[in-house]
Amino acid sequence: MTARKGILNNDYFFEKKLGTGGYGAVYLAKNKKTGNYVAIKAIQKLKVKDYESFITEMNILKGLDHPNIYKLYETWETDRIWFLSTEYCKGGELFYYIVKQDDKHLTEGEAALIMRQGFSALKYLHENSICHRDIKPENFLLYKEKDPDNIKLIDFGLAKKLSKNEIMNNPNGTAYYIAPEVVKGEYTWKWDVWSMGVVLYIMMCG
After folding, report:
1. pTM confidence score
2. Packing angle of the helix pair 108-127, 190-205 (nearest 10 deg)
């Protein structure tokens, strides 16, 4: 993957900081040429625990183009920091959208709407021989606030590009969402489908 060099301020106007984490910070920025808003992630290289997986994630995202998978537009690199220009999703995590409801779960109609979008993203990934391996409500973002009409799948840190009929054996993912065959140490891309079933349970039951 080829990253750009130079000064981001030439292309982006930084409006505010959206958040911070163990890796660095995320900023809301406006592209000076297009006028579009993006999220700029500033990631300190020394704080990346698994650098190989980080590079793999960026390479996978650069090649994806689906309405329910968040876009990585471009990357910048300095000696100390990676800057990632990504799609800006205002609505936050699906998980928080669920728990903020008065009864802590969604209606059947909303759950069906979200499941269609999630399965559409997974179908695209699996047709391109990619297994996400960490499907959960925290890894879906709402593009707009309080609006599940357009959700985006994020966090490809555990994703894997598969060869034909490849069987995986390394345990990954989040405990409550992994399929039984992952625990047994022999699984395929179908694990993602199991995890979507757990997401449906969370949406319907809280």
Report:
1. 0.92
2. 170
Q: Which residues pair with 40 in a beta bridge?
A: 27, 85
Place of tokens 């471009």: 74
Q: Which amino acid, 76?
A: W
For 51, the enclosing helix (H) or strand (E) is: helix 51-62
H-assigned helices in the chain: 51-62, 94-99, 108-127, 180-184, 190-205
29-44: pLDDT as tens digits: 999 999 999 999 999 9
Q: How far is it, in rounded angstroms, from Cα 204 to Cα 101?
A: 12
Nearest Cα to 16, choosing from 5, 25, 6? 25
Its sign, for the CA torsion 189, 113, 95, 139, is: positive
The position carrying tokens 């590009």 is 161
Angstrom distances, CA of residue 67 to CA of 28, 40, 137: 21, 20, 17
In 3-state terms, what secondary structure has residue 180?
helix
Per-residue model confidence as pLDDT tens digits over 87-102: 999 999 999 999 999 9
Look up 134 and say whether it is catalytic: yes
Of the residues 102, 134, 149, 192, only one is catalytic, namely 134
